[in-house]
Write a structure and sequence with these properties.
single chain; Serine Threonine Protein Phosphatase 5, Tetratricopeptide repeat; PPR_At4g14850-like_plant
Length: about 120
């Protein structure tokens, strides 16, 4: 799946079509599902280099991707830098903690989410 998503991304670039936030979320999500950390890190760097808006959806996709690819601290770093967090963002972080056996962190995140609402 990641090869197909990344291939389409490359075709867009060759055709002169600038990727947007929706494109980035799609590619990042494919990386998360397939565990393609290297491609995901490249896409993250591309977002920063091209000044693509790192909105709520992009940030949440990055949190999810880094958590699922074994980089929970990077996921936490991105999550903590988010100025706006919705239920999906909080859930992505909590699932990431749970995947890595960080039950206390997941429970703490849940409590923080409850306080924030």
């Amino acid at each position: 799946m990641v090869n197909e998503a990344f291939g389409l991304f490359r075709e867009m670039q060759k055709a002169g079509v600038d990727p947007d936030e929706v494109t980035m979320v799609s590619v990042i999500s494919a990386c998360a599902m397939s565990g393609a950390l290297d491609v995901g890190r490249w896409v993250h760097a591309y977002i920063e280099k091209k000044f693509i808006e790192n909105d709520l959806e992009v940030s949440t996709a990055l949190v999810n991707m880094y958590a699922k690819c074994g980089r929970i601290e990077k996921a936490r770093e991105i999550f903590e830098a988010m100025t706006v967090k919705d239920t999906k963002a909080w859930s992505s972080m909590m699932v990431g903690f749970a995947i890595h056996g960080l039950v206390d962190d997941a429970l703490m995140a849940f409590a923080r989410m409850e306080e924030a609402q």
